[in-house]
Design brief:
235 residues; alpha+beta; Glutathione S-transferase Yfyf (Class Pi), Chain A, domain 2; 4 strands; binds glutathione
Length: 235
């Protein structure tokens, strides 16, 4: 596993936060790969549906073996190429560290990110306010305590970890889209007031070159504005 003569192809689209997870892993692991950009604005081709019958990005080809779902793609890469990102489960303390990382990612994705992404679809001001409140509460109650020892990364690490590989693309969008007021600015200011560990960690994550490398902020802001307008028009 993980040898240099393996051929990796990543089917991706740079505006997708889930595909972005795979890019962060590949950057950090310094693995050469071929990139195939999938157009998400048109129906998927029959060729791509053979690769991923769900029609979603990302998908990874590892010597022709197809792996789908961003969390599974990233887990596979970190297992195939052992690194500083996460210990193996047989290393001393490895199983516990893996469990702590999985809990952190679960907390961020299920308690914060789901509310943040829900904001795009909010139909009323009340619904929007309630989603903002849910996201802020999720950060304060679920995520902030898990970052008490971040240095600057998860669990006292001075290097990026699997925790940041799986959340960095989401935190980057949270920061960049609240700054641009595409997501409500008060979402970020409330977090700033209440969650200092999170803010410090988020600064380090969103400044890291492996996290920022494929992110086109301007295109993402414009694309998200257009997506929100479309969602609201069809509501
Ligand atoms: N759970 C999937 C989600 C992937 C996903 O939603 N990808 C979106 C782009 S961000 C996609 O391919 N959408 C295509 C479509 O819905 O037509 C994962 O984590 O890989």
């Amino acid at each position: 596993m993980g040898s240099k003569d393996v051929k990796l192809i990543l089917y991706t689209n740079h505006r997708c936060p889930w595909a972005h997870r795979a890019h962060i892993a590949l950057e950090e692991l310094k693995i050469p790969f071929e990139e195939v950009i999938i157009d998400l604005d048109t129906p998927r081709t029959p060729e791509y549906l053979k690769i991923n019958p769900r029609g979603l990005v990302p998908a990874l080809s590892y010597n022709g073996e197809i792996i789908i779902e961003s969390a599974i793609v990233v887990q596979f890469l970190t297992d195939a190429y052992p690194s500083h990102l996460v210990p193996t489960s047989s290393e001393p303390g490895g199983a516990l560290r893996r469990a702590r990382i999985a809990e952190f990612v679960d907390a961020y994705v299920s308690k914060v990110n789901s509310a943040v992404f829900g904001v795009y679809r909010a139909k009323t001001d009340e619904e929007l306010a309630s989603l903002v409140e849910t996201a802020v509460t999720g950060v304060v109650k679920e995520v902030e305590p898990k970052l008490a020892d971040a240095n600057p990364f998860f669990g006292g690490s001075d290097k990026l970890t699997l925790a940041e590989v799986l959340t960095g693309s989401l935190v980057l969008r949270l920061k960049s889209l609240t700054k641009a007021d595409v997501l409500p600015k008060r979402l970020w200011t409330a977090i700033e007031e209440k969650a200092p560990n999170f803010v410090k960690w988020a600064e380090a994550v969103t400044a890291h070159p492996s996290v920022t490398s494929i992110y086109d902020e301007k295109a993402n802001i414009e694309g998200t504005k257009a997506r929100i307008a479309k969602l609201r028009a069809s509501a």
